[in-house]
UniProtKB/TrEMBL annotation, chains A, B:
Its cofactor is heme b. The lineage of its organism: Bacteria, Bacillati, Bacillota, Bacilli, Bacillales. Residues 1-29 are annotated as: Disordered. It is an enzyme of class 1 (oxidoreductase). It is found in: Cell envelope. This is Deferrochelatase. GO terms for cellular component: cell envelope; cytosol. Binds 1 heme b (iron(II)-protoporphyrin IX) group non-covalently per subunit. The chain crosses the membrane at residues 38-60.
């Protein structure tokens, strides 16, 4: 980071920071839904210290067992476990919303970074469960340790996924020797128009949840805990169609009207994930085994130009039919793709410079995509909508997967007429954590 | 509007516009869910011309009546009727998301404005029903008349609410004499830090839906239809907790962690709405009878400063308890508020400069609020989150309701330490439309 950047960060720190929940965070977790139910019992005080909970909950359970059971059942379905062999938010199901955040560290010692990661780990496990943070939510003379906007809301399948960028391995923390060779500096690609405000970061955090308010609460809480240790560098919201609008759960469409995700590998296929997503023992830095590399690209879609192109052009751009999602010439979304098949005119049915043909290539390079649409008001310089795709993908070695793929796309993709990459970052995501451990512990 | 503004608009127009669906829009409506179901029947082509629909739908209905019935039932619950005595989106239930858009007209004749409003009316009625727009969605040599991203999604309780701003009544369309006296130029308020990029507009459009992708589709479609007639001036997304995260439907919390909406009048109380929301015959301009005035204020919350204040300060700021939402000293959210009640120290339990005390006053001035939280990345000048409240309210006469209320708040509200108004607009919302009519017809 430039020294200018550092000064800006100092200023930012003064602006951003707020009373941290401190070491007492999470000592007495209380589910947000429990709180809501307690409130229904008489409102004698919602944010009780842990001491008061057992008694009132007991009384409440006796009075309304059925309600509690329903709530508990729906809560389990609403929860994705934070702890595990791998981090959540990678091969786990994709909730309806995304809030992506990049942080820059402002501390200077490895020990301070470790402490931050320990505090973030505790908080993230609690957020995934839908618990309130901390124990100072009912004391009038203290800032509440939980900011409260998610009180009463379900866990909403919250996942929080952490990674560290190339700058994390500069001279500051004495970790340069552990920088994975695969965590290269991202090369420039054809068509890049990157802006600093959506690029880079010492740490990348992907939050997903079925509720935007819950996702916001998570990022805000992490930023708060980071007080004095790290500042937000950039954030980006994202959405897809909700489960409510599409209970059948068809492949979601992107803002270009096309089904997006059809050709994605099956995240439930463990062998495949070991092959293309999870860093294996012997792949390089041992601390990365079980982790993966997360690439984030903020890609603006020139919606207005796209909307002027014909359906024929649009379908040739992707190599798929808009309505069914089937490969051109086919009729079913998931039917086999044959890039060699020619049409009546003797040319390939799926144009060689279509997005699918180029991204697929000979099929030997795969990535796991997990993108979300975004709508961020307007670009006031041009009067156009600032909308597009917050592209996120995971891969085992970006040098062999994302980078060569994007090099090909950046050069020849028909889609380039309609998109522009405005932000970019890559993060090495740690392996999963077991209870008692903390994110990054294999590195420290 | 300044001539500079006009030039910018011309440039914008060239950027923004895209092939409009044209006059054929909506001649052959097809529900987005019908499409999805058709796709399931064999994928022989989803976007059929109307001619093909009857036959296949018939066959499909016979094959799977149960499914269709379920879908129809859930669809009805998911639909808020566009036509009616009043516009939808005012006293109708508030869906989970907001997309607010302000447009500037680029045409010069009243007749062209009328045509735009007629096209927008047809489209809005179809969007509220979850229908695809237009009939060129299956012709390879034309731009699709529907942009497609909401295909297969439910109507999601979409409402689209139209109003016109003070600039609509300048010299351009010969309508100056019909400008309602109540549609004053908004005065400057204490604490305003308005930015042009979120202020004003000839036309204001509030879109609400239970799905962000559906809301986006609506605004994008309206902007597309406006090609050559109007350009987007600003947009702002908003959210609240979803029905999924809070099935019980408690009062939503704002990003300051407090329940927001408790003191709002009951939108189902028709007498009350006639009193405070709907312009009555004899109130002034006859064309506004059955309409209302919509005020939009983009209010940034200084989240980081708020999070450093104690629970006691926070509760004194609003005059309510954070956990229960009850007035200070009380225990139930909806219990009666007594601003005169003193605490043990002889001072009012609810501070006189608290937000509630000031907004409530002697109870003689009321408005109908319908705000949404927003999270729009970061303010890169300060490094702070750009998050807050997209405040929207409706009132019968802003000179007697919103303006005096905000004058008082702008001057003395304790909340001002933590918020800043960054955008502002006011629009005269037309009365409702009957099928065959169009928005604004009472004015033209
Ligand atoms: C705004 C930008 C982009 C849009 C709108 C987009 C959209 C799509 C669509 C509609 C498909 C076909 C359906 C599917 O298989 O999901 C697709 C496929 C794919 N895209 Fe993208 N994409 C974008 C950027 C990227 C980028 C940056 C990459 C990676 C460098 C990428 C990699 C892929 C891959 C690997 C496939 C699957 C190809 C196959 O094996 O069939 N896409 N994309
Ligand atoms: C970020 C800005 C604002 C926030 C966070 C906010 C929040 C709140 C909260 C928490 C309450 C108490 C619960 C309730 O009755 O809903 C409230 C009440 C109220 N607010 Fe605001 N508000 C904001 C701006 C405004 C503005 C600009 C106005 C109008 C000029 C306004 C008018 C009212 C009214 C009329 C009440 C009800 C008072 C009563 O009768 O009890 N608020 N607000």
């Amino acid at each position: 980071m430039s020294s200018n950047g550092k000064e800006r960060d100092k200023q930012r720190e003064q602006n951003q920071t707020s009373s941290p929940p401190g070491d007492s965070v999470l000592e007495k977790p209380l589910s947000r839904r429990d709180m809501l139910r307690l409130a229904g019992t008489g409102g004698a005080g919602l944010l009780l210290g842990a001491a008061g909970v057992g008694g009132i909950m007991g009384a409440f359970n006796r009075a309304a067992t059925a309600t509690v059971e329903t709530a508990t059942a729906s809560k389990a379905a609403d929860t994705i476990e934070f702890y595990g062999e791998h981090q959540a938010g990678i091969v786990t199901p994709a909730p309806d919303f995304l809030l992506f955040a990049a942080f820059d560290l402002t501390v200077s010692s490895k020990e301070e970074v470790r402490k931050l990661f320990q505090a973030w780990t505790k908080a993230s496990a609690a957020l995934a469960k839908g618990q309130l943070l901390g124990d100072s939510n009912d004391r009038l003379n203290l800032p509440p340790s939980d900011t409260g906007e998610a009180a009463g809301l379900s866990p909403s399948r919250t996942t929080i996924t952490f990674g560290v960028g190339a700058t994390f391995f500069d001279a500051r923390f004495g970790l340069s020797a552990q920088r994975p060779a695969a965590l290269v500096d991202m090369p420039a690609f054809g068509g890049d128009e990157l802006q600093e405000q959506w690029t880079g970061g010492d740490i990348g955090v992907q939050v997903n949840a079925d509720d935007m308010q819950v996702a916001f609460h998570a990022i805000r809480s992490l930023a708060r805990i980071a007080r004095g240790k790290a500042v937000l560098r950039w954030t980006q919201e994202g959405f897809q169609r909700t489960g409510k609008a599409d209970p059948a759960g068809a492949t979601p469409r992107n803002l270009m009207g096309f089904k997006d995700g059809t050709g994605n590998p099956d995240a439930k296929n463990t062998a495949k994930m070991n092959d293309i997503v999870w860093v294996q023992q012997g792949d390089g830095e041992p601390w990365m085994a079980g982790g993966t590399y997360m690439v984030a690209r903020r890609i603006r879609i020139r919606v207005e130009v796209w909307d002027r192109s014909t359906l024929g052009d649009q379908e040739a751009t992707f190599g798929r039919h808009r309505d069914s999602g089937a490969p051109l010439g086919g009729s079913k979304e998931f039917e086999a793709v044959d890039l060699k098949k020619n049409g009546e005119n003797g040319k390939p049915l799926i144009p060689v410079n279509s997005h699918m043909a180029l991204a697929r290539g000979d099929g030997s390079i795969e990535i796991l995509r997990r993108g979300y649409s975004y709508s961020s008001g307007m670009d006031h310089r041009t009067g156009q909508l600032d909308a597009g795709l917050m592209f996120v993908c995971f891969n085992r070695d970006p040098r062999k997967q994302f980078i060569p793929m994007q090099q090909k796309l950046g050069q020849s993709d028909r889609l380039n007429e309609y998109i522009v990459h405005t932000g970019s970052a890559m993060f090495a995501c740690f392996p999963g954590v077991q209870p008692g451990g903390y994110i990054g512990e294999t590195l420290f």
